[in-house]
Amino acid sequence: MRIERNTPPEWEDEEVTRVLRDVYASPAPNASYWDTLESRIMARIATAGEAPEWWGVFHGWVRVGLAAAVLAAVLTGAALLRERERQERLAYEAVMESASVIPVAGPTIARGEGRSRDATLRSLISH
Fold it and tell me: Burial of 30 by CB count in 10 Å (0-12 exposed, 13-18 middle, 19+ buried)?
């Protein structure tokens, strides 16, 4: 075979045949290699039995998978409950903080002697 630059390779049938024979030649000098290989393959096929379905491969993993699914569900539930409690606590704290800012009706708003509407209004606006 001759390979020259920028030219397609020229394959000759005899050369390709020789290369393929070298590649597929039996590793043993005798011709019984292929017969022995065939008999080993056929024996393996005969003893293998029927091939299992794709889900049959995971038959031994059922308990482990089920345990993992239960554990994942428990952890997810715990995380959701914890987040809900956190949100409730934040909402409670927000309400309690805003309650201290709102003026509470006190003695300045109460009606009595010397108290007028203007005084009550000024007291409310000043807070």
Answer: exposed
- Judge whether 1 and 18 are in contact, CB under 8 Å: no
User: Strand, helix or coil at 73?
Assistant: helix
Q: Would residue 101 be called left, alpha or beta, if left means φ above 0 and alpha means ψ between -120 and 50 degrees?
A: alpha
Given a contact cutoff of 8 angstroms between Cβ atoms, the answer to whether 84 and 76 are in contact is no
Dig out the tokens for 113 from the structure: 């002697």
User: Could you please report the per-residue DSSP string of 76-104?
Assistant: HHHHHHHHHHHHHHHHHHHHHHHHTTSPP
pLDDT tens, position by position, 64-77 = 999 999 999 999 99
Q: Please tell me the pTM assigned to this model.
A: 0.37
Cα Rg for the chain, rounded, in angstroms? 45
Reading the block at residue 32, the tokens are 């019984």
